[in-house]
Specification:
It is a single chain. Helix content is about 40%, strand content about 10%. The strands form 5 sheets. Strands 4-3-2-1-5 form a 5-stranded mixed beta sheet, with helices on one face. A 3-stranded antiparallel beta sheet has the order 7-8-10. By secondary structure, the protein is of the alpha+beta class. A hairpin with a 5-residue loop joins strand 2 and strand 3. It is built from 16 helices and 15 strands.
């Protein structure tokens, strides 16, 4: 679907709530002083989805009668001197399929003249302040003026991926797969986390792409979002958890996690836990189909984990009752997955309406409350499936001291796992009319496949 078609469809979806839609590009964010250096630029994903423009300094007004006006930077010699040749505003207009282009300086006046423009929640503080300035309102008033109808229409539209969008995600997955397979064959026993991450970034940047989030590369998988890269040589007795994805300037991300032994061979204990996580992921993927709620898929994956941990003597009791009580969250304290698209956590800047519908209400239960996605699945949804098992010493100590869920947890058996770390396995899955399809060419994940692939390095 073209950018113009997307905008037309959005107006149609708004129905009686239709109006003039205002979309803003992201702005550069300085590290410490505006004239020094900037944080890496990432375009606002909604602006990217409806215009395909990956640059800063733009705004779009889209009218119900089909007219669009693109506002952008005029030719500026200083910009050419400091950052290189400028693409013309008309050229960007042609790219976005907008025939009327005006300098950005006229945007505030035209926006202020509108009676009730429709806009999304500003994604960053500088966007909020700019919108407040343009509308001559307080930031609080700008927040209160967000169009819930526009939010719901954008979510409904962007949730369903067309063939072109799926192909873009699979392009990202193809590149991600190559890097995962390359890293698995590095001499990991003589490398540090920082060196492994450096190898990832070199391979990403050499393709003029970027990562879709800061990579997780750690032998301490029990820290769910560990973004510290150790300088010490990897402990060859531990597992390396690697969670990262890629995206080009126009968006559409991959998000993959694999966990594998630093020395290339799973210990018995590592293999046993890994197989439980893998079984949970495979069960969850198999359950993916239209009409099923993702919350139910999450609960199914959780029950598989409970049964597997029961077989290892770490849990007991009825699996459904254990999951209903939240006892499994000692080992699996996060949600099963999230939407994937232009953003790696697609549209989550719009709130829980993305994952839960309107009104979206999350559980307050520990673990289940971190579930980002619970809504009914539809053809065209692309989601991650990423169960895990983690042994978090502080959490284990707290629950044990409180005798929390002792009807389901074998606390006396956890001592041998205290320094285990964590395992997560993640793939990206498309919901289809017939059920589901795991996107991309498979990335090795079965124990024997991993060991064989690492041995061939």
């Amino acid at each position: 679907m073209s950018y113009a078609q997307r905008r037309k469809q959005l107006h149609q979806m708004l129905g009686a709530e239709d109006g003039v839609i205002c979309l803003l590009s992201s702005q550069y964010q300085s590290r410490n002083y505006p004239d020094n250096a900037y944080m890496p630029f990432r375009q606002n994903s909604h602006f990217l989805y409806y215009t395909g423009i990956p640059e800063t300094g733009f705004a779009l007004l889209s009218f119900p009668d089909g007219r669009d006006i693109l506002f952008g930077p005029p030719f500026d010699l200083d910009t050419v001197v400091w950052t290189g040749e400028q693409r013309s505003l008309d050229a960007w207009g042609a790219h976005a399929e907008v025939s009327v282009c005006e300098p950005f300086s006229s945007f505030p006046t035209q926006l202020k003249a509108l009676e009730s423009p429709l806009y999304l929640p500003p994604s960053h503080a500088n966007m909020l302040l700019s919108l407040a300035e343009y509308l001559e309102q307080t930031p609080a008033d700008v927040k209160a003026g967000v169009s819930s109808a526009l939010v719901e229409a954008v979510v409904a539209q962007r949730l369903i991926k067309d063939d072109g969008e799926v192909a873009a995600i699979e392009d990202a997955l193809s590149r991600t797969r190559e890097i995962f397979h390359n890293v698995m064959q590095l001499p990991l026993t003589s490398m540090s986390e920082a060196q492994v991450c450096g190898s990832i970034m070199q391979q990403v940047y050499s393709q003029q792409w970027d990562t879709s989030f800061q990579p997780i590369v750690t032998t301490h998988g029990e820290i769910l979002h560990s973004h510290h890269y150790g300088l010490e040589t990897l402990d060859e007795q531990r597992l390396l958890l690697m969670d990262f994805g890629m995206e080009p300037a126009l968006g559409y991300a991959s998000d993959i996690t694999r966990t594998f032994p630093v020395n290339g061979t799973f210990s018995t204990q590592q293999r046993e836990i890994y197989e439980v996580v893998l079984r949970s992921q495979l069960d969850a993927i198999e359950a993916m189909k239209p009409g099923v709620t993702f919350k139910d898929v999450h609960l199914l994956a959780s029950e598989t984990i409970v049964r597997g941990l029961q077989d290892l003597g770490l849990m007991k009791g009825d699996p459904k009752e254990a999951v209903a009580a939240g006892a499994h969250a000692l080992f699996f304290p996060h949600g099963l997955g999230h939407m994937l698209g232009v953003d790696v956590h697609d549209m989550e800047d719009l709130g829980d309406v993305v994952g839960y519908g309107a009104p979206g209400v999350r559980s307050t239960q520990f673990g289940l409350g971190f579930l980002r996605l619970a809504r009914e699945l539809e053809p065209g949804h692309v989601v991650t499936i990423e169960p895990g098992i983690y042994f978090i010493p502080t959490l284990m100590d707290m629950w044990a001291s409180e005798k929390k869920h002792e009807a389901f947890i074998q606390y006396d058996a956890l001592g041998d796992y205290r320094d285990f770390g964590g395992i997560r396995i993640e793939d990206d899955v498309l919901v289809t009319q017939a059920g589901h399809r795991v996107l991309g060419t498979p990335i090795v994940k079965h124990c024997d496949e991993l060991e064989q692939h690492m041995a061939n390095g």
